[in-house]
Amino acid sequence: MPRVACRVFSRELAVSDFIVDDTIVTPTCARCPVLFGIGELEEVEKRGRITRLTINDSTGSLKIYTDIEVILEPRALVAFLGEVRIRHSDGIFLIIGRNICEVTTPVVRENWILSTAIRTMERVNALRASDKPKWMQRALEHYGEAKLDECISGAVEAVQRLWQHYNTTAKEMILKFLHDVGTSSRERLMEELRARGLEGAWIEDVIEELIAEGSCYEPELGFLALVHE
């Protein structure tokens, strides 16, 4: 089997103890000889020549062990690539690092969350819509149907948190811009938001939410201004 780097959330890995050909299989039947992930660094603990990192990927925490020197600040966003191992005595996953760790950016992390959530949903839909080889059937029997629902919930919650963050950030930017400039055309506002990395049709929904909340209004068609109390 090719050693392809899988993308799964830690919530899915946390229950994984089904193994096929020395490879861990998750409840959505992703085979994970190598795992690629991105998360926020919660803890760094030096243990002789080995360093243990705790990284949160927005659904849970992973323990990562590496013999590579790690100099990172808490809450740094970290991308990692490593081999997946399980310690049967307590079920804790060990990810033995290769090319670990690299500091990354919020945009890269957010793209990882979205792409991982999409892949999770695709795997679940494929499992429920087609005939399966015997090893997949055994994995599904091992975990139970409820685990698929848990994986879907974890993916949806991760994306919802991401959306809430962007929704809040966009609202704050819009209100601050209107506070600074007074009345603005929608076109000028959209240009300003694009320059700050926010774009897409959903921005119009955010503007409508602000109008519905009574935070801003349209003094004339195509223009926006703050509501002053």
Quick structural overview:
Helices cover 42% and strands 29% of the residues. The chain is an alpha+beta fold.
Describe the structure.
With 229 residues, the chain is α+β, with helices and mostly antiparallel strands. The chain has 2 domains: 5-104, Beta Barrel (OB fold (Dihydrolipoamide Acetyltransferase, E2P)); 161-226, Winged helix-like DNA-binding domain superfamily/Winged helix DNA-binding domain (Arc Repressor Mutant, subunit A, Orthogonal Bundle), CATH 1.10.10. The chain has 6 helices and 11 strands. The protein has helices at residues 10-13, 106-129, 134-143, 145-181, 186-195, 202-213, and strands spanning 5-6, 18-20, 23-25, 34-47, 50-56, 61-66, 77-87, 92-103, 184-185, 216-217, 223-226. Strands 4-5-6-8-7 form a 5-stranded mixed beta barrel. A 3-stranded antiparallel β-sheet has the order 9-11-10. The chain has a two-stranded antiparallel sheet with strand order 2-3. Strand 7 and strand 8 (92-103) form a beta hairpin. The radius of gyration is 22 Å and the shape is flat. It starts with a strand and ends with a strand.
Reported by name, the CATH topology of the largest domain is OB fold (Dihydrolipoamide Acetyltransferase, E2P)
Instruction: Count all strands and give the number.
Output: 11
Indicate the structural class.
alpha+beta
Shape: flat
**CA(first)-CA(last) distance:** 65 Å
The total of helices stands at 6
Mean pLDDT: 85
Which architecture of the largest domain per CATH?
Beta Barrel
Strand order of the largest sheet: 4-5-6-8-7
Taken in chain order, the helices and strands follow as EHEEEEEEEHHHEHHEE
Main sheet summary: 5 strands, mixed, barrel
